[in-house]
Amino acid sequence: MKAVRLSAPRQVEIADVPVPQPGPDQVLVEVRYVGMCGSDLNAYRGTFPLMRYPRVLGHEASGIVVARGAAVPDRIAEGARVMFSPYSECGICPSCRAGRPNCCQFNETMGLQRDGALTRMVAMHYSKVFTSDTLTLQELALTEPLSVGYHAANRGRISEADTVLVMGCGVVGIGVIAAAARKGATVIASDIDDGKLADAQRFGARHIVNSTHKDVLDTVRELTGGDGVSVAVEAVGLPQTFRLAVDAVAYAGRVVYVGYAKHDVSYDTALFVRKELDICGARNALRVFPSVIKMLEERERPFPDLITRVYPFAESGEALRAWDADPVRFTKVMIDVTA
């Protein structure tokens, strides 16, 4: 069968790979849609630190169950529409023993450290598979990236008492915004693109700031009476926004980093202590796929509108080239594996 493989930075090829044979505790999924992630773009550029080449891409996927092993529970039937967790866990490292397998020391995410879903069929352990009777396959393919943002909101312990600054309004940032708004928080969103800021408003941001035209820190101070926000979430991955999170958050506030900075970040670390900040990272997603599927099923927000363009399977390389050339133009690039 055919698969889209990144053999080296900027080298995309259509490769032949074996059809997987599901084991007794696995399901065989016919892949329908695969979303392209920021990590895919950075892997294409050669700037993602966790990427191993050559690699079949894809970890934001949906599809149809076409076969199931004898040990698979009846709740996952042939013909079910599914998405699946792309992460692995060892079960014995410190994070796994602490109940946080999303940041397993030996995690291998599909499409990055092991071959991914941008192919015709994948075999998945049934515990990694999540179904929906009402979502479309495109909606299901949005579950994983939105879950990363949802998990970041959980890491920030966001509640209705909080004012939250979300920097970056890509799909992960939108996931944070939607989760924070769902929890009742007041959300301030910043980005450099007016279209993405309009998305942020539709998904729950009460205030928006185009950082190209207006100073984010000044705006935060105006909106909070000079106090700063109680939670700042960085979903951009730039040194200046890493620092801005610490500057914009209030004393005794929380900072969540979900973006990967591509360069070293320098701080006045005395501010960490003076403010007594809780600073944490957010990696992947932890036990939130059912919650995000429920959020999508409620259809209170227009999540499918996040999909900027769907490319056919054979044009996966062109999709990455177009996104690389004009990243601001795209929110979510998706591949139709059957087209």
Structural summary, described in words:
This protein is an alpha/beta fold. The protein folds into two domains: 2-141 and 301-336, Quinone Oxidoreductase, Chain A, domain 1 (Alpha-Beta Complex); 149-281, 3-Layer(aba) Sandwich (Rossmann fold), CATH 3.40.50.720. It is built from eleven helices and 16 strands. The chain has helices spanning 38-45, 94-97, 137-141, 143-155, 171-182, 194-202, 216-223, 239-248, 270-275, 289-298, 316-325; strands at residues 2-8, 11-16, 26-36, 55-56, 60-68, 81-84, 121-125, 129-131, 163-167, 186-191, 207-210, 229-234, 249-257, 278-281, 307-312, 332-336. The strands form three sheets. Strands 3, 5, 6, 7, 8, 15 and 16 form a seven-stranded mixed sheet that branches. Helix 4 (143-155) packs across helix 5 and helix 4 packs across helix 10. The longest helix is centred in the middle third of the chain and has 13 residues, at 143-155. The chain is globular and about 60 Å long.
